[in-house]
Amino acid sequence: MKLLVLSSCAWFAAAAVSAQPAGQVTTASSYTGQFTAARIQSRKANGPSPQAVRVPVAGGGWVVSAPVTARAQTNDILLEPALLVVSCERMKQLLLQELGLKDEWRGRIDMMINSSQPKEKEPSLTAIGRLDGWSYELELPETIQQRVLVRAVMQALLLELANRQAGKQSAEVPYWLVEGLGGHVQAYNLPTFIVRPNEQSSANSKLTIEGPKAVQAGLRGRAPLTFQQLSWPEPEQVTGKDQALYDSCAELFYESLAHLDGGQACLRRMLQELPRHMNWQTAFLQAFQPHFAGLLDVEKWWGLICVNYSETDETQARTVEECWHKLQEALDVPVEVHLAPARMPAAARVTLQEVIEQWDETNALPAVLRAVRELEGLRWFSFRRDLNLDAPAASPAAPSNAQELQASPWRMSQELSALASRYLVVLVNYAKQCQSRPLLASDAKYGAPGLRWLKAETVRQLNDLDQKRAALRAKFLSAAHISELSAAAAGTNASPSSPPLHR
After folding, report:
1. Has residue 59 been placed in a domain?
2. Kindly report the CA angle at 253 between 248 and 256, in degrees rounded to 5?
3. Domain coverage including residue 422
4. Confidence of residue 325 (pLDDT cuts 50, 70, 90)
5. Residue 422: what pLDDT?
6. 74 inside domain
7. pLDDT tens digits for 405-439?
8. In terms of domains, do 37 and 133 share one?
9. CA torsion sign, 402 to 404 to 406 to 412?
10. CA proximity to 368, closest of 431, 319, 457
11. Which neighbouring-strand residues pair with 130?
12. Which of 17-31, 77-91, 236-250, 369-383 holds the top average pLDDT?
């Protein structure tokens, strides 16, 4: 996620302010023209119009009654039209940068600052459909928390992106995407993208990037929400004592999706598909088809994500044994062995080489993709970014080639991380070639020459990596054993070692 560092003067100059005489409305427009903001004393309900359809957008009606969380600012924001449109333009640039898009907006977003609306009331978003497209009205209280403001603007921006190809039906943007993307933008950027009135930036101000701290705090000592709870949250799950938990799970879910192979492109496609379907789940599955065949696969994947995250202590490095065990689990393929017709099948594990060599490729490919997903999960949860405020931070997008994969930092040792990255490169290459070539009827019976060569080459590469892994394992475990003996000799209580790993 790159930092968006822009001059405040340039942003203020970009907002055109129209000051009306006393007693009239004060309005402001952003430099691109997409955002307008106006302060009003009260608002009358809009009557029906034969030329437009007004659709109140769901998902923004949660009442904020909880204490301010670690992510929210301790002081509320007093909204001013001229400053609000500047903040919205900054948030839009962060959103476009996160999704890899250009600014090609079509729907105007008109914001009304209602002075008579209490700050406890949530913003309300209305989509207005006309013959020439969609526009949006966002009503905000005069005083608002930063977290609530970011979520409201992100929801309007995501809806505008989704509705660009929409007809008469407005898209349904899932709440986890709004909350997760909004939390991610706040966590990995300096807080100065929100402009506050009567606030001067100082060179001595200590500006920090939150990073994964909010997710860690929200999940500490608590079980993550299920995919069902993320998809259809109850009011108590997004307010009160459970607000931080939902926010953390939504951000973790979004970031995990974005780190899949081609995750950014999948998210863009999901937004395009939203207005074509009655529910967002169908659009989600079509967009993430390379990764999930159905909602059950999403449930399993999210469960694995939660387990890995819960087992990961972000403050300490994994032990050598834990690193080898996690890598071994990712590479082994679980199977059921039927020893006798009258006996229950026994659980066993086989190597990827056996699967690729002996199984039909239509059955081998899911096993390979499973290994790829687990390696990606291991890479993501072992991923740590060193944030440098003097230079833009590199985006944690999913690696797309061998060089990027091998350069990804892992929490485990440098040599082991490089080895695990090479495993991922070999498996991704095999999966892509299998998916890109048409499966002929004769391939399954005789095996096409190209397929036989691909299998043999993949097995050869995996065998070479296994030999390197065995040598590294002996090296690191010997060093760990020596360290334990030294600690015991010094009278240190060493923790019990894990059981020996097979192979």
Report:
1. yes
2. 120
3. 320-489
4. confident
5. 86
6. yes
7. 444 334 445 667 678 788 888 988 888 887 665 54
8. yes
9. negative
10. 431
11. 133
12. 77-91
Say whether pLDDT at 177 is over 90.
yes
Last residue of a domain, one of 267, 284, 311: 311
Cα dist from 464 to 204, 325, 452, 457, 469, whole Å: 54, 19, 18, 11, 9
CA distances from 296 to 300, 301, 303, 401 (A): 6, 9, 10, 29
Query: Pairing relation of β-strands 109-114 and 143-144?
Result: unpaired
Instruction: Tell me: do 292 and 158 sit in the same domain.
Output: yes
Structure tokens at 198: 């009567």
User: Is the pLDDT score of 471 beyond 50?
Assistant: yes
Residue spans of beta strands (DSSP E) within 6-152 = 16-18, 26-29, 35-40, 53-56, 77-78, 109-114, 124-130, 133-141, 143-144
pLDDT at 387 over 60: no
Three-class SS state of 113: strand
pLDDT bucket at 24, cuts 50 / 70 / 90: very low
Q: What share of the chain is helix, strand, coil (3-state, %, to 5)?
A: 50, 10, 40
Q: Do 423 and 453 sit in the same domain of this protein?
A: yes
The pTM assigned to this predicted structure is: 0.59
Cα(466)–Cα(468) distance, integer angstroms: 5
Same domain as 82, residue 121: yes
Q: How many C-beta atoms lie closer than 10 Å to residue 91's C-beta?
A: 24
**Which residues, in sequence order, are bridge partners of residue 334?**
349
pLDDT of residue 436: 66
Burial class (CB in 10 A: 0-12, 13-18, 19+), 4: middle
